[in-house]
Predict the 3D structure of the following.
Amino acid sequence: MNDRLAEAREARDRYRGVRHRDEWGLEFSRIVAFSDGVFAIAITLLALTIEVPKDLPASKSVGDVLWDRRGDLIAYGVSFAVLGRLWLTHHRFFSSLERFDGALMGLNILYLAWVAMVPVTSDVLGDFGEQSTGVILYAANLLGLTTTFAISIYYSYRARLFKPQVAEMERRFAGPSTTVIAAVFALSIPVAIVSPEVATAMWLSIFLVGWRAGDIFARLRYR
Amino acid sequence: MNDRLAEAREARDRYRGVRHRDEWGLEFSRIVAFSDGVFAIAITLLALTIEVPKDLPASKSVGDVLWDRRGDLIAYGVSFAVLGRLWLTHHRFFSSLERFDGALMGLNILYLAWVAMVPVTSDVLGDFGEQSTGVILYAANLLGLTTTFAISIYYSYRARLFKPQVAEMERRFAGPSTTVIAAVFALSIPVAIVSPEVATAMWLSIFLVGWRAGDIFARLRYR
Amino acid sequence: MNDRLAEAREARDRYRGVRHRDEWGLEFSRIVAFSDGVFAIAITLLALTIEVPKDLPASKSVGDVLWDRRGDLIAYGVSFAVLGRLWLTHHRFFSSLERFDGALMGLNILYLAWVAMVPVTSDVLGDFGEQSTGVILYAANLLGLTTTFAISIYYSYRARLFKPQVAEMERRFAGPSTTVIAAVFALSIPVAIVSPEVATAMWLSIFLVGWRAGDIFARLRYR
Amino acid sequence: MNDRLAEAREARDRYRGVRHRDEWGLEFSRIVAFSDGVFAIAITLLALTIEVPKDLPASKSVGDVLWDRRGDLIAYGVSFAVLGRLWLTHHRFFSSLERFDGALMGLNILYLAWVAMVPVTSDVLGDFGEQSTGVILYAANLLGLTTTFAISIYYSYRARLFKPQVAEMERRFAGPSTTVIAAVFALSIPVAIVSPEVATAMWLSIFLVGWRAGDIFARLRYR
């Protein structure tokens, strides 16, 4: 009977082995399309967090209406820029990959769970952006997101999933700069307790120095 | 006149016959893309079940806010993992298929109807997860879903829709393990009447032993 | 100066001419993908019309909860089946096309506008399905939809947009059967004033005799 | 140490250089798919702005119900047509591009942010279309959108991103006609303060003379 069990096991392993290559090879484009779908939906749902007024008294000017919604509008602008940028980075990451494995797949699903949550925390930020709590919840969401992404990069390097010609560069530039961004979000949490405004300014600094982060990091490292 | 009717019928059959091959052959990738679209939208809509608080008193800490939403957050995590995993399984199933027919198409639409319902039952689970009713509704949704999937696998085997080299393995591993998962959801329904917590724990066990289910099943069968 | 105008016009016409072929040729797959996207989103949004109860008293059994939502659940099932079927038909139509023009493009956009409206009228049907008004609004939506589709088929035939080998069949089978379905929805509107139940039963008959409609029509025609 | 820094910098530049071509070359189709996704979602969400009545008294005829929602229905029709047309134009633009750069990418994200906002301003238009404020907010959204698009066209021309054979035509026809449309939306804002109806009529004129705008412009220019 043990023979039959061994045979069954071998069949299953063969089954899994064959699929493995097939699945992650051929299905690569589908995983990317699925991730793109989640990004596209999340980014479009952001707009729904802008609350439509229940009534519009004639006495109220357009300026007043926009001013009432300034929190929602700023949160929309920030989150659209954030998700737009994250999508670009996610794309660059995937175009550096040569193959995929189950663990990276799991990390990607976890990453997308953070992405899909952005419209919700963005809604909170729009409504309560001048309070510590609102700012902290948003920062926590993006901290989880960037941390998952940084882990994905380092894991892919270790598991030799990158294309050989870019692997070293991913580890040396993409990894550190993602870690720096995660650190800024982590730091902004205690800062938000004292001042939500300063915490928000810290995020904006990521955009302003953003693409230079890897450069700065490389410089500091080799000095 | 009967001649013209026969001719018309023949033309129609030829029309259907030609299309048949064409449609399910060339259009295969579109069916997958459509299914992926439904999955991507359903998984992103999950986040909208996390209720945004109406007001945030300064006295309330971030921990308190998260604690208030713990039901929603747990339901989000569970459902994201469930849909993520189902999507992977759905993909593996489709990559094993060689062709398609109308009945499998119908089963796939029915399957997607269960998928699209997950954000709704997940919302119920988030709000009433400590009550039997909430847990039962969620289990019923996933029971319908997994049962439809198991039927799809066995049907595809019978109708010889699988690629020859994987057909036997689909029947021996994918079929039984899907049936086991369906059985766990079915069993969790009476259990939930007594204890919603135990029922929820039963689902988690699917994840923990999950990918080993086929293995265990194969072992039991050959002992 | 007139020379320069003529030259500019010619340049523009050349520009449009070149694009024409290019655009509808190469971009064909994008138009299909866009339509599929609208279908996938509309079909997934259907689930959101199932209202989540505000509270779940322990005294209420699962059966009671489902019974309270029976209107929503039936409407969900019906609309999912309707949109699923329409998507299939839309696909078959597009796979019969050889090329595209601006007018068909406009008809397709109009068609999608009716598709996107289904979740809304389905919501009305779920809440007020036992009243004439709810049933009529749903029927009107599907009448608009099927009429637009029938016009698209006949227009495509006239403008020679179909692949030659299927053009005649499209006109003889797809055209008439779509017209029959449109007629059933049109007829169900006056019927719904007297009895919403009979009107709903008329729709179901489309599904039951559905794919035979073209056959029946052909038979009547050649007798 | 400076050697190692120079080396690191060179590696990074090589890394960026290689990616640049790769990324915008191969990833082109993904950028289009992502944009199409945002359009498809936004256009489908439009329907959700049609408010479902809370109750349907038997005394209310279907005509009354539709009349009550006339604002929502008109806004839905207008916005569906607007987004449908914008999608076509966006497509034509992308099919004229030979390559992409970071700035155009940023402009495209900004453009999509305006697109995603249309369901929100359309909702406002549906509820408050007879008031200046509602009309102005909608016009402002479309002004932002068309201005971003016009900038994208002129930028792409300057940065030599168009295919050589269509570049000149893009600059001479697509650029001016987009600018004309942006100007109509800009003009409709002061007009809306006096009369919301006239402002709305101005938008409709874009559709009626729409595709002739480039022609008219060319004629005026060469006279």
In short: Residues 23 and 213 of chain C are 35 Å apart (CA to CA).
